[in-house]
Amino acid sequence: MFKLEFLSQELGALREQGLFNIIRTIYGSQGAWFVVDGKKVLNLCSNNYLGFAGHPKLKEAAKKAIDEYGVGPGAVRSIAGTQSIHVELETKLSEFKHAQACIVFQAGFTANTAVIPAVTGRGDIIFSDELNHASIIDGCRLSRAQVVRYAHNDVGDLRQKIAEHKDSARRMLIITDGVFSMDGDIAPLPQIVEVADEFGAMVMVDDAHGEGVLGDSGRGIVNHFKLEGKVEIEVGTLSKAFGVMGGFVTGPEVLIDYLRQRGRPFLFSSGLTPADTAAAIAAVDVLLESDAVVRKLWDNAAYFQKGLKSAGFDTGRTQTPITPVMLGDEKLASDFSKKLFEKDIFAQSIGYPTVPRGKARIRCMLSAAHGKEDLDFAIEKFTETAKELGVLK
Ligand SMILES: *Cc1c(COP(=O)(O)O)cnc(C)c1O
Fold first, then answer.
1. Are residues 285 and 198 part of one domain?
2. In terms of DSSP bridges, do strands 233-237 and 247-251 run parallel, antiparallel, or are they unpaired?
3. The CATH number of the domain where 29 resides is what?
């Protein structure tokens, strides 16, 4: 297939630059420990914040749903693929989020590529945090609106950019991640909403890493900042803390009604399977019953971050259970991760171009599934590795 030869050259270039991604295979279910390439390791890489990916209630709900509703939705949602269980999930999520209405998509990624082009178009301007997620960037491109990037979490810069551009915009939309996945810092949403109100811009927050994590029982960033009813568009995912698969948008009735008519992934791609849908409903039910699992997640994060800091590590600017261990040099971070793996810890290094040059790190993802003994083990192995590599004395 010589016409594809250019792809081998591209892959070769990635390998040469150390950017070629080796994809590990996980055996068995997500959890505190799992088997990777034949080796049992402590898992510090997953977004399974609440341990829901292997939760007995979610698994049971998924199995029951298959018996009752089958394995597939059979059609796109807008033709004959909206099953009663989808409606049940949407009602449950809007109640949980204290929102007027909700629409569920196949993934958080799809939710972004549905909602952004639906509410913006040519003549509009989107103000986007420079560290926003790839699916937001793609959604913005699909919208054909002009995109103006503002400095990360810098409301002064956002304000200045809006003031500069407002006269040439038909409508304006500000988009931010709720929690930024590489540093674990939180968007200054109250200040963003203030600026938005001053200029009449709409606000959208993509709370993929805040859903199930921030706010009362994991209701997310809008609840965390007591901004319910003040943010036009909230995007969430069911694939991270909720432990399943899928994405959703919550907001005013008119927005959700419009997305049912004009959200392209809703109209042209089939919806979630009954098993996914039922498991997601069970996830919300577990959170409605008790916030114990969310508190466990935060306790674990505080314990782990304190342990690392007192050992002498720099955990960057995190405000959430996402814990970057800042190392700086790309090669050092990559060697660090390899050594950890030899010591039964699976924690990935993240370097350029995902984060700026010289800001390489090991990113640890905490979970309520971890026990204190797991965290002690991790802190010990991190410290040992740092001494071997000359990072700590
Ligand atoms: C992970 C993530 C997504 C994608 O969510 P999926 O449900 O996995 O498609 C979207 N936005 C942000 C900010 C994310 O972190």
1. yes
2. antiparallel
3. 3.90.1150.10
**Residue 174 sits in the same domain as residue 264:** yes
Q: How far is the CA of 139 from the centre of ligand 1 (A)?
A: 12
User: What confidence tens digit (pLDDT) does each residue in 322-347 have?
Assistant: 999 999 999 999 999 999 999 999 99
Is 181 labeled as catalytic in the residue annotation? Answer: yes
Nearest to 237 by CA among 220, 258, 260: 220
Q: Are 285 and 299 in the same domain?
A: no
Same domain, 334 and 215: no
Q: Which residue of the set 86, 97, 209, 381 is catalytic? A: 209
Which distant-in-sequence residues (6+ apart) come within 8 Å of 325 by Cβ? Answer: 308, 313, 314, 315, 347, 361, 362, 363, 364, 382
Residue whose CA lies nearest to ligand 1 atom number 2: 208
Residues with CB under 6 A from ligand 1: 107-109, 133, 135, 177, 181, 206, 208-209, 237, 239, 247
Three-state DSSP at 196 gives helix
- Contact between 128 and 137 under an 8 Å Cβ cutoff? The reply is yes
| Domain end among 289, 319, 348 | 289
Range of the domain at 306: 18-49+291-388
Q: Do residues 274 and 172 both lie within one domain?
A: yes
pLDDT digits (tens, 9 = 90+) for 192-211: 999 999 999 999 999 999 99
| Residue 76 shares a structural domain with residue 191 | yes
Quickly list DSSP for 241-255: TT-S--EEEEE-HHH
Say if residues 209 and 174 touch (Cβ distance below 8 Å). no
The amino acid at residue 63 is K
